[in-house]
Amino acid sequence: MRVPGILAVVFLTFTAGMLIAEEDPVMKEAQTTFAPIPLTPPPVKGVTPTPALVELGKALYFDPRLSQSHNISCNTCHQIGLGGVDMLPTSIGHKWQHGSRNAPTVLNSIFNIAQFWDGRAADLAAQAGGPIQNPVEMGISHEHAIETLKRIPGYEALFKAAFPTEKDPITIGNVEDAIAAFEATLITPNAPFDKFLRGDANALTPEQKEGLQLFMSKGCSTCHSGINVGGQMYAPFGVVEKPGADFLPPSDKGRFDVTKTASDEYVFRVPPLRNSELTPPYFHTGKSWDLRQAVAVMGNSQLGDKLTDGEVTKITSFLRSLTGDQPKVAYPILPPSEAQTPRPEP
Amino acid sequence: MRVPGILAVVFLTFTAGMLIAEEDPVMKEAQTTFAPIPLTPPPVKGVTPTPALVELGKALYFDPRLSQSHNISCNTCHQIGLGGVDMLPTSIGHKWQHGSRNAPTVLNSIFNIAQFWDGRAADLAAQAGGPIQNPVEMGISHEHAIETLKRIPGYEALFKAAFPTEKDPITIGNVEDAIAAFEATLITPNAPFDKFLRGDANALTPEQKEGLQLFMSKGCSTCHSGINVGGQMYAPFGVVEKPGADFLPPSDKGRFDVTKTASDEYVFRVPPLRNSELTPPYFHTGKSWDLRQAVAVMGNSQLGDKLTDGEVTKITSFLRSLTGDQPKVAYPILPPSEAQTPRPEP
Question: A139 or B48: whose pLDDT is higher?
């Protein structure tokens, strides 16, 4: 009688586990609304991310010689060790000029529908070339950037390895593709929320789970959904109630500047909330330093719902469950400048 | 007869090898003048470099929140991937101000007799605190820096692990010791020249070996000696013939500003030449972008010797044999700022 007894226990335990998962309505709803970060980087459109291509992209990502001053790299504003941001309201660019919007995180950016706060770049490659030539960011023309790379002799072999079939591979298009291929590796899997989405009911604390439930029932997840808990669509900021000018200055009309369509006034790409505890300050102005404040402001402005302190605590707690394994990046050794390399113009 | 024959060949080969080594006068002189970079980091005075201490030091080294703007870290001017420098004539600091001298490399700096061009810091720990509070560099008071670290909650555990016996370990002294412990790991062993110094006669090309011979016979090694091929003593720049004001502006009197001793006018710490092909531009002004030019200028100004083109080529070739294995550094993940963390003041 022992063996059947054990089998019965095993069977019952197994069945109970399935029932818990199947009957957990919060998990079930979450699984239809969000998706876990995959464990390995996803494919990049139009690019085969060979190790040589990713290695080149990493070198370019860290190379300050892609700026006019030779002092600013992609990593200056999107630091791998700081949640993929610079933790500044707006970034400091060429000659200490300030950008107009808070730098979005590079982490998991491959999963966004488009890049920049206004979605003006369709993908990572299209984004990568922007800051290089933006006068208030890296401030160098694409032509000058390519000329510089061509006169850093060590880059030739890196480009040849990354683009083996091309005769003259040092082009801005290839620079953008290589940076995009590297950026696509910067994903943060294994957050508690990912484990929960994969069926581990204990991956979230009770408070986090209540926060998740509120996040869905209050309507946050109407916009903040999908793999990045945001980044999948556009929405007007202040749809119910305009927040103060600190958070929504009238001068920045968001996606309207891209589409010139009246209905896009003050519309922005819904910010992805992955790793948001690592990425203060918040909003496109970078004017909120407090995740709790940001949650409360969103309740007012987007949902017309004055969240209680307890609700803010629970939702913030849920947001902290979105922090995943941060990328392990070996700092790249860059090829040296030589006598013929164009000089910095600081 | 076979076995004794083989033994004889082995014996002769072995003896010949020893004779080559013993009779190679260039190698012999080099071995008395220089020393190889050790394969593992050396001890740091007064500090036990535990893994926790080095890890803390690495985080601090990369953390821009040790600057007033939260935009400048140690790595901004001493980049791990750029030969330990920023490849600028003089560094760009707080509010885009320029430093007054070229940033020396952090690589192998543990082997220098003192730090800074004028040797005003006795060791790495004493150096580390300088740029933090220099108004044209990171521009933050030590008090403000410590207050910031104390209000980044994740740092508490890192300091506790690094200084387990201290009750209140977040101090500027510990910040400096931790950064020094990390910097001491940034050594570059296994350069061709190191292999040559260890007895491998083929580690240098014939041209490099001729360059080494010239480097010693012309007198360069009178000052550029020891483990860092420099960095071991002080010497006046322009001892035989003053170079132009581009390279030696009258306003910067070097070590005189530290000692107020007339004989220290235009005296500088002899620059270490390790990895010099990776660290343009050259001189304390950072005004020479060409290693060949730097060699020729030194011949004129220090030796009164107008080196021929061929001699410059050979010596430059020897200098390229000083490039060792660059440090493998995993980019550190920094603890996030929170609502109570002091804000950047850009």
Answer: A139
Instruction: Report the greatest alpha carbon distance in chain B.
Output: 86
For residue A13, name the pLDDT band (cuts at 50, 70, 90): very low
Mind telling me how many Å the CA of A25 is from chain B's nearest CA?
Answer: 33
Closest by Cα among B62, B144, B87 to A86: B62
Per residue in B117-146, pLDDT tens? 999 999 999 999 999 999 999 999 999 999
d(CA B101, CA B252): 9
CB count in 10 Å sphere of residue A167? 6
| Closest alpha carbon to A57 in A180, A185, A152 | A180
B92–A69 C-beta distance less than 8 A = yes
Q: Do A88 and B70 touch (CB under 8 A)?
A: yes
Name the token pair of A212: 């998740």
**pLDDT per position as a tens digit, A171-222:** 999 999 999 999 999 999 999 999 999 999 999 999 999 999 999 999 999 9
Say which residue the tokens 């800051």 belong to.
A131
Distance CA A307, CA A298 (A): 9
Q: Which of B279, B328, B333 sits opposite A81 (nearest CB)?
A: B333
| pLDDT in the model for residue B346 | 87
Q: Shortest CB distance from B336 goes to which of A69, A98, A278?
A: A278
Query: Which of A65, A70, A87, A278 is most worth mutating to test chain B (most B CB atoms within 10 A of its CB)?
Result: A87
Rounded Cα distance between A322 and B322, Å, is 47
Over residues B11-29, mean pLDDT = 65
- Closest-CA distance of chain B to residue A155, Å: 14
B43: pLDDT confidence band, cut at 50, 70 and 90?
confident
Which pairs with CB-CB distance under 8 Å and at least 24 residues apart come from A93-98?
A93/A134, A93/A136, A93/A137, A93/A138, A93/A139, A94/A67, A94/A68, A94/A69, A94/A135, A94/A136, A94/A137, A94/A138, A94/A139, A95/A69, A95/A139, A95/A346, A95/B96, A96/B95, A96/B96, A96/B346, A97/A135, A97/A136, A98/A136, A98/B346
Report percent pLDDT > 90 for chain B.
91
The ipTM, to two decimals, is 0.92
Under a CB-based contact definition with an 8 Å cutoff, are residues A197 and A34 in contact? yes
What are B234's strand-pairing partners?
A: B269
DSSP label of A262: G
Read off the tokens for A57: 């992209």
